């Protein structure tokens, strides 16, 4: 019986903070990708360079970059014409980066071809040669056109060719041919969601499920033709209804190097009652009709044929928060007046802010959770101790690793990234 043992381990690592975790020898496997058994993935958001003032250089300065195996650059877009396009060319390759924001301390020179985040990612890779950088396509607000773009074999071939040409070959509009080559080592698909609701206005069809598999197969074929080492990954949902509506799990995993599965937004401020953002285990006290957890999501993929070693678990560097919450059960599963104020969006706040927020913090070792309650506001978020517990779970189950959304939410000491690294290496 592994689950009771895992609960005990969760309790131990939560109590020990960032202490070492003893792992059975059979939980380990051979090295991959530069000797790292586990993937340690983090998303870098394209728009972070603006209001958040978070730059590629900050991944280096904080110490995060040397503890990651992959950086997913979010996001590229699928345009209305059914081809890969940039969301923000200024941020991607046009913006001249000053010396103080540059990875190597050297400003972009006037007239140089490649500027912006892509040139900085190239510099980061030069400093950390084992680091892989993938372009993520889609996201919550960028998945509207996926269904149309993969509807026919001709459309799938055209989309795949455009993605390879733009992001892997580096043929960026307005620049010399190949100016962006060498930035990206692969493609990450973030279609949210094939066959089921995502953002308002998304095109959804029952055929999406089959067409996603066919597109992944075609994209893999074209990527291999260009570079046999190019990696293909995808971000997949937690809800079983969405899994079954949109994904032929066994076939899709057969084409992917690995997939990152949703381990956050399990509850959030679209609901009128507080709950856990990313609980490790299912809570029997959860009053919701569907009880989500990281453990339940992992099992859902395993039972549908996903190989354990290709499942990478998503973890949040942010919290979900409610205001107007009563004191029963320290605010957990209680009615709320609405989302709590947040720096960038109501009901949402970065770990680096929440770590210093006043209030009492509660850990539940049975569910692998932590929350903050101050008598009015309730915030569900992961701290380093809960991430150590999740990392131990990943390791003990022989899973592929961890993925963080998103790296700008971590603090200046890379506390969350370091917590995962302490176990998953």
UniProtKB/TrEMBL annotation:
InterPro entries: Chitinase_II/V-like_cat, Chitinase_insertion_sf, GH, Glyco_hydro18_cat, Glyco_hydro_18_chit_AS, Glycosyl_Hydrlase_18. Residues 1-27 form the signal peptide. Its EC number is 3.2.1.14. Gene3D superfamilies: 3.10.50.10, Glycosidases. It is an enzyme of class 3 (hydrolase). It catalyses: Random endo-hydrolysis of N-acetyl-beta-D-glucosaminide (1->4)-beta-linkages in chitin and chitodextrins. GO terms for molecular function: chitin binding; endochitinase activity. Keywords: Carbohydrate metabolism, Chitin degradation, Glycosidase, Hydrolase, Polysaccharide degradation, Signal. This is chitinase. It comes from Sphaerisporangium rubeum. The lineage of its organism: Bacteria, Bacillati, Actinomycetota, Actinomycetes, Streptosporangiales.
